[in-house]
Backbone:
């Protein structure tokens, strides 16, 4: 896995109907490094992340994640965590139990994985017993990030993780992402916040610079 | 603040809406509705008459009393679940926050609900009297009883309306009525097992009945006046919640998509619960532990399931194949108690991706708890039938236990069904066009009950030996195994078919 870049995108074309969104996009995220894609709304950042996550089929082009095809296999999802999709929640399970469930599914002991510490760090300790649908959108976003960072993974694909976070929360999350990259993890994210991206230890690149032709 | 007169606003809305409709559309709808009722009535009037007024009374006094508890209890619980006061979604959005009289805004809802509840109450009274009362010339008594039934229906609406506006006593009353309903079911079961459950030999005198109904009418009318006076005090959030329920109910009916309603009920149930985080049972596989936790958190549903194990006894005098089918369907219902998580994963596999589990691992683990519930329920139901003498002696408890895999496969299959596929081609039949989407959706889940054919035959015949148990065990186990292997994979996470 370490012999290959975390993400390799070459000549990616995606369109919605007759409207091209991604034209000849090329991107490489080296293993153990972070890349943040910036650009205005509607330029195709989320589409790019969805394609890299294997959640959307491109019209043309090649995508490799750790040398393999992105796909729906459990092996892929054991290595990759994405927040590109809006989360759903299990009925009758609290925020803490969701975190514990994910840890246990990956063979982690919830205590040693630091479930309580993660909830504390993300400002969710007082909401540990709440069911996620009752949380605010910012709290849900933080819970998703807390769970994403709790479970083992090799690549994080995050779509605007700074959204709905206050200034302090952004600094905390950026620090955690920087630690993740420093620990050998790879990071691909889209963001509107250059300062957040820099603090996350990610190299900033624009969508325009990735495209062969600016749509 | 001066209240704006509501009537001109409603007239304007009605006029504007009418101008967008096709000319005569309302009349056409009324005509089709009336014609449908006339046709269905003409086709089934004998069966309807049998339901409401059989040739000879066939229910004991205990059964009649139990039916009163069951029908009126259910009516009250339904009224509470759906409001009873509700507005249409547009009215809730635009008229509820407008400076109009809240009482006048809610009166039509109270009027319609009152009429419907009174009609149901009267019909129920007629049916109960028809099944339990002696056959004698008793026109006045029947009329008074039917009137009394209508008054009970109306009274239930008034109590439910007060509970909608009131405090926590409404929830306490719901629990009490739930107990009354459960007692009614227990009474019905008991009435079929007792040799002498009593019978009603004579009508009460017209004078007594007239007095009781007259006093009840005065009390209900006085309560109606009080409720109407206090209508404006109904909190907006309760009306909004009921309006959302009514809207979802219409969506369910028009879209023929029951999941809209069941999902809403599920969401509301959990939103009201105050949970405390607990550790998932570490010795169990993770998804089994999650299902166990979810099931234990729905203790009231488990209690209903336990009580429901006695319901097949009600069918002890029905043909054997009906009793057998009821037991198999009961297995499916018992299994669905623990399939909420499968439904979530089937609708959106985001969490399964986060868990990093294959669809095969997930479904294998998700089959366990529904299987145990279905097995225990069937074992209990069949043991009860055995003990009460409705089945000849045999290892019925063992047959129930081996039905577990079938119940699990049926329940999980049902939970994975997803939305109704309305794009499927409709079928033209002599009775009209038939939408196949809802039909296909409805049979997915119940179709797995075919794995219980040996048990169905055994229950139908009322005889059982160990070889049948063994055959059933093999068929149910192998069927569940084929279902797992055939509909899941080690190389994908998605649960949808």
Residues:
């Amino acid at each position: 896995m370490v012999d290959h870049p975390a993400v390799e995108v070459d000549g990616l074309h995606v369109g919605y109907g007759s409207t091209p969104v991604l034209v000849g996009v090329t991107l490489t995220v080296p293993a153990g490094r972070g890349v943040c894609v910036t650009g205005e709304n509607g330029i195709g950042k989320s589409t790019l992340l969805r394609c890299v996550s294997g959640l959307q089929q491109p019209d043309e082009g090649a995508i490799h994640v750790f040398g393999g095809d992105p796909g729906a296999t459990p092996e892929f999802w054991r290595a990759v965590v994405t927040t590109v999709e809006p989360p759903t929640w299990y009925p009758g399970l609290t925020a803490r139990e969701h975190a514990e469930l994910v840890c246990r599914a990956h063979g982690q002991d919830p205590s040693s994985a630091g479930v309580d510490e993660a909830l504390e760090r993300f400002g969710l300790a007082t909401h540990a017993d709440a069911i996620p649908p009752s949380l605010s959108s910012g709290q849900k976003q933080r819970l998703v990030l807390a769970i994403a960072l709790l479970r083992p993974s090799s690549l994080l694909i995050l779509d605007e993780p700074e959204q709905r976070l206050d200034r302090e929360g952004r600094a905390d999350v950026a620090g955690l992402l920087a630690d993740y990259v420093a620990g050998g993890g790879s990071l691909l994210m889209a963001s509107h916040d250059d300062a957040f991206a820099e603090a996350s230890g990610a190299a900033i690149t624009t969508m325009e610079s990735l495209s062969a032709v600016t749509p | 603040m001066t209240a704006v007169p509501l009537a001109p606003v409603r007239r304007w809305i009605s006029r504007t809406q009418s101008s967008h409709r096709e000319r005569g559309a309302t009349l056409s709808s009324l005509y089709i509705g009336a014609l449908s009722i006339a046709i269905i009535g003409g086709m089934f009037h004998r069966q309807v008459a049998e339901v409401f007024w059989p040739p000879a009374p066939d229910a004991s006094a205990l059964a009649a009393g139990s039916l009163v508890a069951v029908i009126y209890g259910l009516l009250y619980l339904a009224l509470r679940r759906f409001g009873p006061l509700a507005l249409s979604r547009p009215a809730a959005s635009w008229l509820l926050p407008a400076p109009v009289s809240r009482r006048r805004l809610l009166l039509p809802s109270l009027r319609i609900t009152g009429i419907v509840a009174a009609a149901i109450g009267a019909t129920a009274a007629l049916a109960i009297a028809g099944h339990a009362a002696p056959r004698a010339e008793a026109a006045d008594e029947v009329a008074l009883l039917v009137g009394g039934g209508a008054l009970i229906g109306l009274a239930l609406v008034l109590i439910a309306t007060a509970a909608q506006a009131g405090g926590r006593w409404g929830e306490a009353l719901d629990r009490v009525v739930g107990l009354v309903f459960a007692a009614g079911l227990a009474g019905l079961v008991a009435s079929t097992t007792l040799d002498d459950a009593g019978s009603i030999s004579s009508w009460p005198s017209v004078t007594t009945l007239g007095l009781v109904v007259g006093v009840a009418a005065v009390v209900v009318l006085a309560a109606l006046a009080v409720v109407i006076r206090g209508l404006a005090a109904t909190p907006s959030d309760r009306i909004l919640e009921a309006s959302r329920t009514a809207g979802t109910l219409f969506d369910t009916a028009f879209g023929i998509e029951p999941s809209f309603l069941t999902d809403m009920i599920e969401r509301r149930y959990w939103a009201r619960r105050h949970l405390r985080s607990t550790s998932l049972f570490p010795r169990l596989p993770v998804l089994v532990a999650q299902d166990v936790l979810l099931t234990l958190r729905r203790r009231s549903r488990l209690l209903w399931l336990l009580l429901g194990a006695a319901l097949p006894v009600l069918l002890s005098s029905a043909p054997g194949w009906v009793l057998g089918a009821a037991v198999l369907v009961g297995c499916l219902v018992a299994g669905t108690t623990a399939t909420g998580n499968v439904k979530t994963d089937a609708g959106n596999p985001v969490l399964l991706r986060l868990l990093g589990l294959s669809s095969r691992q997930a479904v294998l683990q998700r089959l366990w708890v529904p299987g145990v519930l279905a097995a225990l329920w069937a074992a209990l139901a069949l043991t009860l039938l055995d003990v009460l003498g409705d089945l000849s002696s045999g290892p019925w408890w063992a047959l129930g236990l081996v039905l577990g895999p079938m119940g699990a496969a049926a329940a999980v299959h049902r939970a994975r069904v997803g939305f109704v596929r309305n794009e499927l081609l409709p079928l033209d039949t002599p009775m009209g066009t038939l939408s196949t989407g809802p039909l296909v959706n409805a049979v997915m889940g119940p179709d797995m009950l075919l794995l219980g054919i040996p048990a169905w035959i055994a229950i139908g015949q009322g005889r059982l030996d160990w070889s049948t148990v063994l055959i059933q065990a093999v068929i149910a186990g192998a069927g569940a195994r084929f279902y797992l292997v055939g509909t899941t994979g080690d190389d994908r996470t998605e649960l949808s078919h």
